[in-house]
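--- STAGE predict ---
source: upstream dedup step, 1 unique chain passed
mode: sequence only
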Amino acid sequence: MSKKPQGSQWKTLDTDLNRISNVEYAAAQVSRPLVAPGIGLAFIVIAGLLAAVFFEHTPLNLIVVAAAAFGAYMALNIGANDVANNMGPAVGANALSLGGAIVIAALFESAGALLAGGDVVSTISKGIIAPSAMRSTDVFIWAMMAALISSALWVNLATWIGAPVSTTHSVVGGVMGAGIAAAGIAAVNWSMMGTIAASWVISPVLGGGVAAALLALIKSRIIYRDDKIAAARVWVPVLVGLMAGTFSTYLLIKGLKRIIDVGPGAALVAGVAIGVLVWLATIPLIRRQSQGLENRNKSLKTLFGLPLVVSAALLSFAHGANDVANAVGPLAAIVHAAEFGNFTDRVSIPMWVMVIGAFGISFGLFLFGPKLIRMVGSQITKLNPMRAFCVALSAAITVIVASWLGLPVSSTHIAVGGVFGVGFFREWHMERRLRNNSEGAPKPKAISREERARRKLVRRSHFLTIIAAWVITVPAAAVMSGVIFLLLHTILG
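--- STAGE serialize ---
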């Protein structure tokens, strides 16, 4: 019969078990950050295999497989970076949980890409680089491959440092850099590049201005009224109707070309009609929802919660329909050139290419999106449902106005500019109220520079980081693309 363990033996056993549990905990902590990259890598491999299965066997088949893998990598980065602009304000305003936002965004991004995206598009190099400047099909393929790799790497780097950047500008910079390396500076359409550079200023200023104007309207007509609930019953249906009409016009112009193709005039008429119908339908709903609410700002937030969620979902649908081309445009051009040996015709995006783009954006959002969602939603300025609603609505309004004016704009710049616009308006409004309240009062004591900085409602460090990333996106992607093209052409050309 064995002896019972003595006290010292129990202590030794406990020590050994603690060591084992510490090793297991350490292993879990080390492996956890590797899960997301591992899943992303698996998706990239699957995308390459998908290309090998669906693409016809030609001598250039391996090139298409590699392009599909890099297209999947680009789609992952778009999901990690770009989608945060649509869902960040709703999450920051606590209208959606982070998990709920990711699920809604993934569903609507995929639906927009597969249902409304993928219409017949011209090669992405047109308008930036003249296709006639390319010496051969091989040179064109290496240029598109370099553009794809460089833009994906740049968006990945921007996501890592926490800067929401324009994936459209990344692709544009990649195409320009590869085109210069392949055909010289003369091949670049510099007037087109000038309009793109102008959008760096136009997009955020327009988005910020519209968002600030909407917030000023809400403050003057609802928040600062004696009877806030009565004012909300009048103005919330108007704002929801404006949202419905604006998004209807926005989707008809930018996001539903594959399903129904209408001109700007018809889209505007349809948007006005839908907006009026939604306004009339919302009046009794808001009246019923507002019954029993207290006359304070917290009650108003509940009235804006559902419209904010709907606007974020619609933004994701439109984003999926439009920006999926950033991931699969160069890939589709490579597939077309490899299959037909022609790179000057219009390119129809195959469905398997669209699937890579749609699922890649969704996977990127699931795996890497939370960082940028938190940045846009809560780390630039404090948002509530009313402010976030202004940001979402300003994005749709600004895109429509810019489209009619013929101005190239970035959805990323507009959305982030709207967040900055709301924050800076709040700073200005707070300073004005403080000045008005202090008129006739004793002169306040001096405030230190540190105290003034602490009272700012927009974080200046994030503001400067994002602006710097915006400015260098095109040149950085261009330089990287040019170097990658030269390496590919030297090694494989």
